[in-house]
User: What shape does this take?
Amino acid sequence: MDSPAPPAGGPVACTVLAAGALAEDGWVVHEEEVRRSRFLAVLARTPDEEAARAVVATLRRRHHDARHVCSAWILGPGRRRMRSNDDGEPAGTAGVPMLEALSLRDTGGGATDLTDVTAVVVRWFGGVKLGAGGLVRAYSDAVSRALDAAPLVRRTRRARYELAAPHGEAGRWAHELELTGASLEGVRWDGPQAVIDLAVPDVPDGHSALASAVARITSGSAVAAPAGHVWVDGALA
Assistant: This one.
C-alpha cells in the first residue's frame, strides 16, 4: 500500500524557482546482491503520479518472478507529493528508506531538492533473511548507488511571454530580443499578426529587463503579455 510522506526539510516556499532532477536520458539502473538476495534499483524521471505508477507497473510485469517490487517517488517543483510502498516487506524497511535516499540527495551546493523522480527496487529473495536493519540498508543503498550513477540537471522556472508583432517586424524583433538574453521559444505566423513566444528568468530583474527591451525594440508600440511558466533543464551549479 502506498504511504504518503510530507516534504523533507520543513515547509516549502510557495514559489519554487529551481529544483534538481534526473536528466532525461532514460532509466538509470543499478544491481547488487546482498546475502544472496538480488536487488535491482531503477530510477526514472516522472512528471506526475500517472507516469510514476506506470514505471512501477512496467517493472512489476517485466519482473513478475520477483518477491517484492518496492517504490518511492517525489513529484512537483515544491516536492509536495511524496509516496512510498513496501510491497510486502516489513513496514518501513523498504519504501521509506528509498524515499529518504531520494529526498536527502545533495544535487549541488548543499541543495536537497531532487524531484520528479521515481525509484523502484525489485528484490529476488535469496533464502537468507536480512532482518529489519539489513533491509533498510539494502533498499537505501540500492537507491543511493543508482543516484551516484545518475546524471542530474538543475531545472529552473522561466516566465513565458507572448509578443504580438507585425509580420514584417517579427523576425527582427525576435532576433533582437534574443540578443538581450530572452529565450526564443518560437514564432507563430498564422494570424493577422505574428506572435513571438519568449521566456525569461522568473525573477523581478528578468521581467523588468524584458519590458525595457520590448519598449526599446518596438519603439513603445507593443507590450509582451504574460503566458504562464516553463521549466528548463540546465547544468548543475
Notes: The chain is about 30% helix and 35% strand.
